Amino acid sequence: MKALLLKRKWAFMVYILASCLFIVSDLLYMSLSSMIFDALEKGSLTLFINRIVLGILILGTMSALYFTSRFLRIGYMRNVLLDIRMEAFKTILKMSPRQFGKISKENYVSRLTNDINLIEEKFFRSLLNFISGLGLYVFGLVILLVMDRMLALWIFAVSLIVYFICKLFLKRTEQLQEEVSTENEKFTLNMSNTFNGLEIIKLGNIEDKFLDKNKQEVSRVEHRKFVFNNFSEVQQNVLLFASYLVMVGVVWHLGLCIAEGMALGSAVFLFQLSNQVVFRTMDTFPLLNVIRSSSKIYDKLTQIEEQIEVEGQQPFCFNQHMMLRNVSFGYEQDQPLLKNISLKIEKGKKYLIKGASGSGKSTLLKMLEMIYDDYEGTIQVDGVDYKSISSKDFNDKVAVIDQDIFLFEDTIENNISLYKPLNDEIMEKAITGAGLEDFIGEKEAGLQTAILENGKNLSGGQRQRIAIARAIAKEAELLFVDEGTASLNEKLGREIEKVFLSLPQTVIAISHRYYEGVSERYDYVLELQGGHVKVHEAKTYFEGVGVC
């Protein structure tokens, strides 16, 4: 967090200066009070009126200092918070799909919203009060040393005791702050799951059950916040009690000074200054705990970077074949889902993965997509080990089509090109290859037709064709299809399957459907049974019981 704050050194210096403007306001206010009491002591009405007029000017100056401070601070805070959001988002984007999948998407959303809001609310507010409080403490002590050395030394000794008391609270403060963050993540995840399953909840008439569950989740979040806030209050109250005891000593000391001839105005000024130094000290040092605990939340947002594995450096070149040798994989170490799989995938061929539910079809596909890499055995492409291949280079040369296609809220053109410049020839080839000519031709805006959020204004077949156009436009060498026609009707599914099979790319697909006269056009069927794979010629496979 320190490095981020100092990224804009001059802006941070301005932020500190702006925070210290409150010190000027406090000193002006104390001076005003001192001068008014001084006028009262002297019994001069003219002097009293002059001090009142001066007071109005001072109050106006204090208001101007407040707005100036806010104006100077707000831009720096906004930029740092933007940096935090971007750094956290960049960290997530750097992760491999396998790393990203270790926790749910909702947890990342919670980190990018709740945790950053927590930093904004706790860190910057605490930092502002800490800087102004520490500044007042330093300036106040210096003034006290000039005016009353004994009083200054006494208050300094008390401040050291306060500092060490605050250190005792630090570890627990950090722990409670992290618990608040964790509960926020759980709450966000629960809400997302509820909204995703809203149709089932309504059909099952179990709204009350989920309302109760939601109430429990909210209670847990609020309880963590309550505990954290109460713990912070305990710190404040312990120190507040100590502050009152100190101020009793200050009043006693100043009473003796007045008895020895100190002017009332000077005594009032010393009392107010001592009061500010003591109470601001009691408030300021606990803020260190809040600042440090907020820094822990920042570390949580960015520590994923440490988990990013060393990437392979070899280019992905698929000119001949891909070889799997004795490949085994399991989500649980002692229960392998795939066992000693060995097979050869040739460039330009079309492969269909079949098998019962839970047989490992998607798992095999994800290994070939480089999402899972903690398998035993080896996967090689033209003799180069999969694990040594650069994931960036791999992603540049493969395309994936899932059952649920993701589309950006943008034009058809940008959804096909993925924001990369494409010449007209490649774009036309993609549109023709995916069978989008009629669809785009019907649109008044053509390729500039806007797609609503995730393609809400498109049919399932249109979404799939845009995904296919993406793969063609990308000129991918390898196309992975995971249940690409599952959500389509028979007629449309058959048409889309024909498009897959007409492409020049190597295609590896999963499908539970059989389209007579189309599915036979695959070159091979990879049948998964009991963790093993059997390779069949497609025509032979679909002649018998394999159809079902």
TrEMBL record:
SUPFAM superfamilies, per the entry = ABC transporter transmembrane region (SSF90123), P-loop containing nucleoside triphosphate hydrolases (SSF52540)
Q: Which InterPro entries match?
A: AAA+_ATPase (IPR003593), ABC1_TM_dom (IPR011527), ABC1_TM_sf (IPR036640), ABC_transporter-like_ATP-bd (IPR003439), ABC_transporter-like_CS (IPR017871), P-loop_NTPase (IPR027417), Type_1_exporter (IPR039421)
User: Where would I find the ABC transmembrane type-1 domain in this sequence?
Assistant: 16-293
Keyword set, alphabetical order? ATP-binding, Membrane, Nucleotide-binding, Transmembrane, Transmembrane helix
Gene Ontology CC annotation, any one: plasma membrane
A Pfam family the protein falls into:
ABC_tran
Q: What PROSITE patterns does UniProt report for this protein, alphabetically?
A: ABC_TM1F, ABC_TRANSPORTER_1, ABC_TRANSPORTER_2, PROKAR_LIPOPROTEIN
Q: Where are the transmembrane segments?
A: 12-36, 48-68, 127-145, 151-170, 238-271
Q: Where is the ABC transporter domain?
A: 322-547
Its placement in the membrane is given as: Multi-pass membrane protein
Subcellular localization, as worded in the UniProt entry:
Cell membrane
The GO terms this record gives for MF are: ABC-type transporter activity; ATP binding; ATP hydrolysis activity; ATPase-coupled lipid transmembrane transporter activity
Q: Please report the name of this protein according to its UniProt entry.
A: ABC transporter ATP-binding protein
Q: Which organism is it from?
A: Zhenhengia yiwuensis
